[in-house]
Amino acid sequence: MNATAQLQDLAIIYVLDPPGLTRDSIVLLSTIRHVLGDVKVIAYCPSDKVDFLFPYVTEFYDRMGAEIRLMEPTDKFIAPYKQGNKLLACLQERDTEYTLFLDTDTAIVAPFSRADLVTEGTVSVVPEGVQSWGGNPGSWEYVYEKFGLPFPEERVRLVRSNKLSPPYWNAGMIAFPTRSAFAETWFRLATELDADPQVDHKRPWLDQITLPLAIAVSGLQARNVGKEWNLSISHPGHERHHEEFFRNINAIDAKIVHFHQAKFFAGTKFTAIADEAIASNTKFASLSELTAPGDAAAARREEVWGRFGELKKIAQKTPEELAEMHALGQEKNRIKARRNSAEEQAARAPDSIVKPVTAD
Fold it and tell me: Quick one: which of 356, 13, 345 has its CA closest to 173?
């Protein structure tokens, strides 16, 4: 049975929130097509970001046979909440029996079937890496009580710290029955918890705090499919840890990797898949070629902000330091203007990124 048949009745969805997530979405979509073939793909774009959907992006999605659907922003959160876009995406109507939601900074690195991932009555999830929320023993008890749920006896082992925790899932990979109550329940609980002043430090983890609660309230069972379905390959960059880190990462037969930033592919066995996917589906020869302009811009932003911060801390500045700080301040303003202006971004956008069609 081919890959497409094995993934029948499954839609892979994610958020395309341009301009920031555009490049990551190109990596994700390229790997989906390279590894899984013609599975249904839907990217949800907030309607207020449509001006950043440049022609090269829509052309690429059209060539890849993937849909871009607009979704209206929500005012249900007490303040803008970027991660809320994933809840909105899951909430949209689809005609497939199952949905696989992925964070946009993920990539498919090995084939799988729908049956490998999700079954009726379950939500497939992977534990979070570390205890980013819920370290206070009273925190989880409160939110379970708030929504009328018994506090679970089950404990899951967090995939990076190895610590035992009440069910705490990473919201970067979730597979669920589309027509279940899960997505609607998740959105409702997240907005209600967001408005509760008794719960501290809930952002940006509001989506993950409410994920196990939403599964339970909607009458489904959490299915822990293991870290190979959402393998984080980011690392702190300490050279003394690299050898052990890469040895452990490269020993895992992952299906989906959570790369966070494209630079973290370097040193992993998954680079080859990413390079093949980019070369097969775009005009670029490799992942590094695709990401080079953005990486250079990001490096310069970091350099400017870092040096400006250093100069700001100097109490008595020399004339040369004052001049440098002034120049850096102007450059900061130019960088901010470019990032916030669709016209500026469009002027710098490529005409096309699709792989040229050659005659046989």
Answer: 13
